[in-house]
Every structure is written in structure tokens, then in C-alpha cells.
Amino acid sequence: MTQYSVTVANNSVNTGAICIYQTSPDITDPKVMSLAWFSKVAHPKTKVQFDWGIDYSFVWDETGVLIPGVKFDASQTLPASLTNNNQVTLSYSEGAFEFEQQTTGGKNGTLYITNDSSLPLNQASVGVGMSGAGTFVVQAQPNINLTFTPHPTYWITFGNYTPGQVLDIGQITNKQQLEFAPNTYNLSVQLKNDNTWYVG
């Protein structure tokens, strides 16, 4: 599996969390929320490193109502692939949620989640993850079928973030897209003294 790495130098005068998150051009549902995929606190003049591979998973958590700021800490993570084991059902029985009936279905390149009729409203969220951490989630509700066709775009920002935090990406101003050129898997990034980003 191809591994990606981003090394970030905090050359600002502030201590804060360096956060990497994803957006996807194929997800146009406004109810789908991006999560703080990775987040590490960095003091001025220090570096942090983030590493990941392109391996997908299904995730759910009992978040209550899914709104920006809520913490998503996956209660169950099931490995998935874009070519097999790409379909799963979220159900609720005996007072608890669980994934079941993971199969291969639909078309290659897409992840499918069925919310069955047993799910209560506004108790859980469900979605997909990459490299062991959630990336996109949506409120779970009964009798809804969800599809995710991942073409991730990576972004970095700086502030007060914790891993798994539900983001309001429209409110993030200090952000920088992380673009990997062909056959490039490592990036060096600086948060500069004027709080702007440099990728190079």
C-alpha cells in the first residue's frame, strides 16, 4: 500500500493544533460532515508528522445530534475496500448499534451503507474512514441508503482542533490544500510567522 507523509513545521508564534481533514467533490449532500481526520498540538519552532495509507473503513459512533464541534470517536471500525467488502448495514438491537452483513455489492469505487429500519433518530452517526480514522460522517436514521465515492482532497489548518471533531468547513479560513504531484508521497509544510502556509 502506498504511504503518504506530511511534515509540518510550526514557525508561527502560536501554540495550537495542526489539523488535516478531507473534502470530496463527489459528496454534495450538505448533511455529510468532514471530521478532523488527524490533529496534533505543536508549539512554536517544532515539527509534527502525519502518515497515512489509502485504506478505507466503515465507522459509526453514538454522537447524539451531529453538529459541528461534536466529537466522533468510532465505536466500531470495519475495514473496507473499493473493490470488495464495500457494503455494510448499520442496525440497532438490544439497546446497541452494530455493523452487520458486510458484503461486496454495487459498483467498484463506491462504499455503501444501509441504515436499516431499527435505527433510532438522532442517536448515532455513520460514515467512512481512512487509515484508521473517520473522515466523513452523517446522521444515522432509519431506512436510508448512503453512498460514498471517495476522491479525497486533503487540507491543513491550524487552531483549536481535536481528532474526530466534526468540522464546519465553511467557517475554516486559515486552510491550505495539500496537493501531491504524481509519484510524490511526501510533503513539507510550514506555518509561517504571518500565519500563512508554505508547501514545498
Structural write-up:
By secondary structure, the chain is mainly β. It has no helices and 17 strands. The strands form four sheets. Strands 3-12-11-6-7 form a five-stranded antiparallel sheet, with no helix packed on it. It is globular and about 55 Å long.
Number of DSSP helical runs: 0
Task: Report mean pLDDT, rounded to a whole number.
Answer: 94
Radius of gyration: 17 Å
Number of β-strand runs? 17
The poorly predicted ranges are: none
Gap between N and C termini, in Å? 24 Å
| Helix-strand makeup class | mainly beta
Summarize the structure.
The protein is mainly β and 200 residues long. The protein has strands at 3-10, 16-23, 33-34, 38-42, 46-53, 56-61, 76-80, 87-93, 96-103, 111-115, 125-130, 133-139, 144-148, 153-159, 175-178, 186-191, 197-199. A five-stranded antiparallel β-sheet has the order 3-12-11-6-7, with no helix packed on it.
Give me the secondary-structure topology:
Blueprint: E1 3-10, E2 16-23, E3 33-34, E4 38-42, E5 46-53, E6 56-61, E7 76-80, E8 87-93, E9 96-103, E10 111-115, E11 125-130, E12 133-139, E13 144-148, E14 153-159, E15 175-178, E16 186-191, E17 197-199
Parallel strand pairs: 1-16, 8-10
Antiparallel strand pairs: 1-5, 2-4, 2-14, 3-12, 6-7, 6-11, 8-9, 10-13, 11-12, 14-15, 16-17
